[in-house]
Specification:
mainly alpha; 0% strand; glycosyltransferase; 2 domains; UbiA_sf
Length: 316
């Protein structure tokens, strides 16, 4: 028997080793469906505390703790959304050449179990959020509601799907500030919003390019996009993000009341990193932004350089 569904159909006749293997496959499949690799996106909850620290370099342990709580809460709610998404799309995924290998579509994880686990993760996320504050609970609730709407059909609406996916990144960044009760700069929100739209448009552009190269099946909303339109979106978003960040960097220098040039210098690694990432976008290779961040050593060095510059701007 090659799948859990087939093993279940055999009833009690399955021998114990096969049952153990099936249970192992089920647990592994459940973990895969929760997509822990995607949790790297939740590091964005640290953005607001880091930005606030750059403008006012006072170390507060409670802020670090609240940000950690927000990170855990987003990991739980994001995994809950992935489970719902795969359960809703199970029939479509079974007809897809690669998505049919997803645990739910392959029958390794039953649909009912996926829904049940999703409810449990939603509840756990809400409970963890309350450890920090009611403000974080509201952000998590908004994220969950928007993402469920996305799973139920909004992902098939052009432009709306781009905005919803981008809002997921923005809400992660807002969550860090909400958890710690930190005020959010207008520049911070602009940089995060358009940076998110830049990445999402780049991801969709990669899917369009893949379709043009291989003829692979694409999501319904993409059939209403053109490569040139998505180029326009990610290029415009990148330009606005760079402009907003530059204005923000100069504001940080003025707010701290120092003559430090490090905030302005931080513009350099930031812009170079955007241009570096744009190479992957332009080549249609930005379908998985987290994979690029994990494998591109130059991009990692640029990111580390940016962090150092912003940190130095708080002290020098």
């Amino acid at each position: 028997m090659s799948s859990t569904a087939e093993s279940d159909a055999a009833g009690d006749t399955a021998v114990p080793p096969a049952g153990d293997a099936a249970r192992g496959g089920f647990v592994s499949g459940l973990i895969r469906t929760a997509r822990p690799r995607q949790w790297v996106k939740n590091v964005l909850v640290l953005a607001a505390p880091f930005a606030a620290y750059a403008a006012d370099p006072v170390f507060r342990m409670d802020v670090v703790t609240d940000a950690a709580v927000a990170f855990v809460a987003f990991c739980l709610v994001a995994s809950a959304v992935y489970l719902i998404n795969d359960a809703i799309d199970v029939e479509a995924d079974r007809a897809h050449p690669t998505k049919r290998n997803r645990p739910i579509a392959a029958g390794i994880v039953p649909v009912r179990v996926a829904y049940g686990m999703s409810i449990a993760l939603f509840a756990a996320s809400f409970a963890v959020s309350l450890v920090s504050s009611w403000r974080l609970l509201i952000v998590i609730g908004v994220y969950a509601a928007v993402q469920i709407g996305y799973c139920l059909g909004l992902k098939h609406q052009p432009v709306i799907d781009l905005c919803i996916v981008a809002s997921g990144f923005l809400l992660r960044a807002i969550a860090g500030g909400a958890a710690a009760g930190l005020p959010l700069s207008q520049w911070f929100l602009l940089v995060t919003a358009f940076g998110s739209l830049f990445m999402v448009a780049g991801k969709r552009y990669a899917e369009i390019v893949l379709f043009e190269r291989t003829g692979a099946k694409i999501r319904a909303s993409l059939s209403k996009y053109s490569a040139s339109y998505l180029r326009f979106v990610w290029a415009t978003s990148a330009a606005i993000m760079i402009m907003a960040y530059s204005l923000w960097a100069f504001e940080i220098r003025q707010r701290t009341g120092t003559n430090s040039v490090w905030a302005a210098i931080s513009i350099v690694p930031m812009v170079v990193a955007v241009l570096r990432y744009a190479v992957d976008v332009d080549g249609g290779n930005a379908g998985e932004p987290e994979d690029i961040a994990l494998r591109d050593r130059v991009l990692q060095v640029l990111g580390a350089s940016w962090v150092v510059c912003v940190a130095l701007s708080a002290f020098l």
